[in-house]
Amino acid sequence: MQLSAQRRFERVPWGLLFAVLLTAVVGIYNLASASRPPSAPMWGSQLLYLGVGLALVAGVGLLDYRLLQRLTVPLYVLNIVALVALKFFGHKAKGAESWFVLGPFRVQPAEFMKIGMVLMLAKYFHDDDRPGAPAQGFLRLLPAAFIALFPTVIVLSQPDLGTALMMLFTALTMVLFSKPTAPVWVGLGVAAALSLGVLWNDYVREQPEGDRLTFVRHKLKKHQDGRISGWLDPTSDLRGTNYHAMQSKIAVGSGGWSGKGWMQGTQTGLRFLPEQHTDFIFSVFAEEQGFGRALLLLLLYGAVLLGSLRVALTARDKFGAYVAVGISAMLFWQVFENIGMVTGLLPITGITLPLLSYGGSSMVSVMLGIGLLVNISMSRQLFSS
Amino acid sequence: MNLLGTQREPRELRPRVFVVGGFFALGLLVLAVNLYRLMVVRYEEFLALSVDNQFKDVRVRAPRGLIRDSRGEVLVDARPSLDVFITPAFCQRCVAEVIPRLGTLLSWSDDVVTRVSDQIRLTRGPQRYQQQLVQVDLTRDEFDVLSSHQFQLPGVDLEAVPHRHYRSGDALAHVLGFMNEVTAEELAKLNSGREERPPYAMGDYTGRRGVERSFESSLRGQDGWVKQVVNARGEVMRDELGNVLKHDEVPPRPGRNLVLSIDARLQSEAERAFPGTAGALVALDARTGFVRAMVSRPSYDPNEMTGRVSPQRLAQLNRDPLQPMVFRAGAQHYSPGSVFKVVTLLAALRTGTFTEASGVSCGGGYQLGARRWRCHSDRGHGLMHAHEAMRGSCDVYFYRAADLMGIDAIAEAGRELGLGSITNFGVAAEVPGIMPSTEYHNRATPGGYQKGMALNTSIGQGDVNVTPLQLAVAYAAIANGGKVYQPQMVERVETADGQLVEAFSPKLVRDVHITPDQHRVLIDSLVAVVHEAGGTGGRSRLPDVTVAGKTGTAQVARLGAVRLKTHQMDYWQRDHAWFAAFAPAEAPELVVVVLNEHGGHGGTDAAPAAKAVLAKYFELKRLDREAFGLDYVPPRPPPAVRAPVLMPPTQAPDDGSDSSLAREDTGGGPEDESPARPSLTGKPGPEDAPGGN
Q1: In sequence order, what E strands does B118-155 have?
Q2: CB-nearest partner of B50 from A266, A309, A339
Q3: Do A290 and B39 touch (CB under 8 A)?
Q4: Alpha carbon of B353 to those of A42, B238, B482, B519: distances in Å?
Q5: Distances in Å between the alpha carbon of B15 and those of A241, A331, B8, B375?
Q6: Cβ separation of B31 and A295 shorter than 8 Å?
Q7: How far apart, in whole angstroms, are the C-alpha atoms of residue B452 and residue B372?
Q8: pLDDT-derived band at B564, boundaries 50, 70, 90
């Protein structure tokens, strides 16, 4: 049942696409400042990545919706295989095995795994539909947990704590969205309380040196441990583990209402910010553009999320709705985690800011998600009046 | 509206989507509130931090002041020292490879390698981008070796850094002093209360001993500061033209120059003429107390002490039995022997014990109680008056005087002349010496004071101990009619461009009451020592200037039954040879005191050096007069313009006394034939006549 081209055209979520494009353009403008001389100018290649991304949006958007559903399982398996293969053929950078080097490109499988996981979860919830018993109990959530946790654990072992956390929260959002039963809520609440308890026990509680009882802390890598303890005590070790967190806060805070001006940020220009064109790109923006425009940027992300959730509202079936919610959650958690980390709200975990951070893989994975949303939106049956 | 009738209709999901939307909105709100907290509420705080971040106070070292002699010749300045620095951030495999390699090339001991490794390993953060000093003052050879291995030494830099340079080597070492690194405790003390831009930094050098220490605050300038823009690595940022981006700058103020009263030409003559292994020579202006030349032997090289002196070398210097680190002119006291006899004579004249005409018969000894005090001449000198007694250094004459007046009269005269207490020379450590009195002996000697002690004291033996500097001050007072001056070595402090900051006037300590008659008797007898037949100081006679002087041969070990010749004795048993002199006798200008430690006889082993210095002094005076057409007067700095005083002066200016006093020629050039002067044609006195017993 093909609709006419015009009907299809009308169903493209133009608001969402506009918000995405505007954000990406702001990102390129900001990147030009973040990679000012003597750094290599990166906004050119970012523009290229944006073009590739838009092509992907078009491509994925025009795919047959049913093909998409059928492709879900192979995509998921392929992504898992890629993640495992990374263990053997991956390129080591900054202590983490995150990259495949394919000719001139560096591909980060974890970025695609996120999408694969969202699709797989959506497919599971779609297939598991039981009109008589809509609520999801523990047993019904077990396969979902496996779908989410298996790739998450592999990503965590790379180690890529940021992406793993983001996947975990995205999956959690989808699980909660699936309307679990009260015991599941209670169980998750208990799990959250336990995590907090472990955090408190390992990091906050005063324990005698040499006779510490820790549950997780001793298993973490030293830099991860330092980031968590630094996050809980931001004024400690400012020359060491907390140096980057502090410098980022200084950059953001010194922006004030109106900012220091494009290309005028001193924290940026003098390289006090680590990874200022990727993970810490928001600090550059906040320092140079000020509070007002940073707020506008947040609203822009809000618009993107709004557009995504609108797609979920109008989806043809549960699969579409779940994918749309999953993609939205993925974007939300990535934004939340990134901005939270550069402003000292969350511990430093390497994670990019969608559409603002430099990088092809990040751009491609975001655009794949947007493409899926376009596809879902265009495949819907009806206008929701 | 379920056209397909699918059971998987997402309708039931719709409310949940709104819940999710609400949750997202809440999340973004949290981020926004946090941004507001950082960017609006705490803006000032973070702005200040970002400003702190980008500017670095870079210290610009102020050059240390020069030390010049009275004519402007540079004695101490700076030379480039090739120092080795390591920048830890650029030094790959630093501790594992580079430092051991450096150690091999520079022949470091294991201790040094460990110390440097620790030093580099302990650097943190931005410090890793700063150069760490690991070795000062490379030799030319070491520099070449390192340069040729440059590529095996990443992060190692060789740089020329100004380093204190003592041009005359070991000459004047004890009074010029040397420099080395400030210790942590000193740093805390020097910088206390000045945390912002502290004047001293770790690794800075500070003056040790001598004028380097006592004039540290003048010599050391005020370091300047440049607020430079730096990046996170501490690299200095430059504009398009390559100029360093400066935000603010305080230029350094160079240290003050010191002008000493030393005349370098006289000093080198004194160094050349000094006869012995150990001892001291002091040449003092009799009219002002300013030091013109000063020798203390053996000496050490302050360049070595300021540079890379090894602990072994330091231990060697400290173990040396000749004690090269000791400032012998002021920080070591000796029995004066017969040079002390002027004090006894002055005491005798002042107390009325003797007059010029009082005679004592010398039979080669003096009986007091059961004991006989020997004269140095076993045969005896016959009838002695003040004149002959001094000329021949007859001990019996002075024994008699001491017997009559007791020790306290001598002690009083000695103390007034400055013996027994430090002279407040200021630039070097001093000992007070000993001027024994009844009270002293009752306190210090078992059995208390006995008359024999006065006899010993009268000829400068026994417990009386003086430093060469004290003796020079005392002789200056005798020469100038009783004015005891505080010896000084720094004439003035000038700014780097020659503006006068502070001039030091002669400092009169005491005016000893000496009547003109007593003065004449003292001078006449001292002139006789040098110029008359039978005088013991004939070897200091000058052809055209009247010299007044006194020899001394201070006994160190107890006399045995047989008198030994100097060369028959062990070095440490030999007598100290003294000679104290001033000239011209009619209007004394220069006092010279020579102490030749374990040198033998004053007349033969000390007097010639004094003669050489006096001769040079008058030769220089003649040369200066020929060159300048008048008596050489050092150029006076322009008076009025005084730089704003940034540091308090080291010493309060004198009570307005005229500094030109030091320059006034009191007349009596060498050509002026003095009627009082004895004939110069007499043949030199017997050379073998020793000074004392």
Answers
A1: 132-135
A2: A266
A3: yes
A4: 106, 85, 20, 16
A5: 44, 20, 16, 130
A6: no
A7: 10
A8: low
* Radius of gyration in angstroms for the set of CA atoms belonging to chain B, rounded to a whole number: 36
Binary contact (A270, B229; C-beta < 8 A): yes
What number of C-beta contacts closer than 8 Å exist between A and B?
Answer: 153
* ipTM summary value: 0.93
Q: How far apart are CA B578 and CA B464, in angstroms?
A: 15
Are the beta carbons of B94 and B88 closer than 8 angstroms? yes
Cβ within 8 Å, pair B46-A250: yes
Nearest CA to A229 out of A207, A252, A251, A254 is that of: A207
Question: For A254, which of B28, B30, B47 is closest by C-beta distance?
Answer: B47
Task: Give CA–CA dist A168/A181, Å, rounded.
Answer: 20
Residue B684: pLDDT band by 50, 70, 90 thresholds? Answer: very low
DSSP H or E segment with residue B507: strand B507-511
Encoding tokens for residue A64? 């047959």
Q: Could you tell me the CA-to-CA distances from B644 to B138, B495, B637 in Å, in that order?
A: 39, 11, 16
For residue B340, which amino acid is it? F
- As a whole number of angstroms, the distance between CA B528 and CA B388 comes to 8
If one counts every other C-beta atom within 10 angstroms of the C-beta of residue B150, the result is 11
Q: CB-based burial of residue B656 (10 Å sphere; 0-12 exposed, 13-18 middle, 19+ buried)? A: exposed
Contacts of B229 in chain A (CB under 8 A): 270
Which chain B residue's Cα is nearest to A299? B28
Q: Which amino acid is at A303?
A: A
Question: Residues of chain A with pLDDT > 90: what percent?
Answer: 41
Mean pLDDT for chain B?
A: 81
Q: Which pair of tokens denotes residue A327?
A: 């993609």
B296 or B52: whose pLDDT is higher? B296
Of B282-291, B394-403, B518-527, B656-665, minimum mean pLDDT range: B656-665
Q: Distance between CA A118 and CA A123 in Å, rounded?
A: 9
Q: What is the DSSP letter of A365?
A: H
CA of A103 vs chain B CAs: smallest distance (Å): 31
Contact B43 A253 (CB under 8 A): yes
- What amino acid is encoded at B691 in this protein? G
Which residue in A247, A251, A214 sits closest to A230, CA to CA?
Answer: A247
How close, in Å, is residue B93 to chain A by CA atoms? 19
- Average pLDDT score over residue span A23-42: 86
* CA-closest candidate to residue B507, choices B431, B591, B418, B419: B418
Q: What is the C-alpha separation between A272 and A266, in angstroms, rounded? A: 8
Q: What is the predicted pLDDT for the residue at B284? A: 93
Could you give the CA distance from residue B268 to residue B270 in angstroms, rounded to a whole number? 5
SS3 A336: helix
The answer to whether the CB atoms of A266 and B6 lie below 8 A apart is: no
Say which CATH topology domain B264-663 has.
Beta-lactamase (3.40.710)
Residue B247: CB atoms within 10 Å: 13
Given A267, A343, A344, which is nearest B50 (Cβ)? A267
Does residue B690 contact residue B553 with C-beta atoms inside 8 Å? yes
pLDDT band at residue B126, thresholds of 50, 70 and 90? Answer: low
The dihedral through the CA atoms of B559, B564, B570, B574 has a sign that is: positive
CB contact under 8 Å between A240 and B125, yes or no, is yes
User: Residue B641 above 80 pLDDT?
Assistant: no
Q: Where are the domains of chain A?
A: 5-204+214-378
Q: Per the structure block, which two tokens stand in for A330?
A: 């993925």
CB B553 within 8 Å of CB B537: no
pLDDT, position B3: 43
For residue A322, what pLDDT band results from cuts at 50, 70 and 90?
Answer: very high
Handedness of CA A121, A127, A131, A133 (dihedral sign): negative
Residue with tokens 């039954």: B561
Q: Report the C-alpha gap between A342 and B23 in whole angstroms.
A: 21
- The answer to whether A15 touches A22, Cβ cutoff 8 Å, is no
